[in-house]
Amino acid sequence: MAWFVIYTKSNSEKKVAEKLSEKGIEVYCPLIQKERKWSDRTRIIEVPLFRSYCFVNLEEKERHLVFEVHGVVRYLYWLKKPAIVKQEEIDVIKNLLNNFDHDALELVDININDLILINSGPFTGIEAKVTEKQGMKITVIIESLKMKISINRNKNIINRI
Question: What is the CATH number of the domain that holds 38?
Answer without folding.
Answer: 3.30.70.940
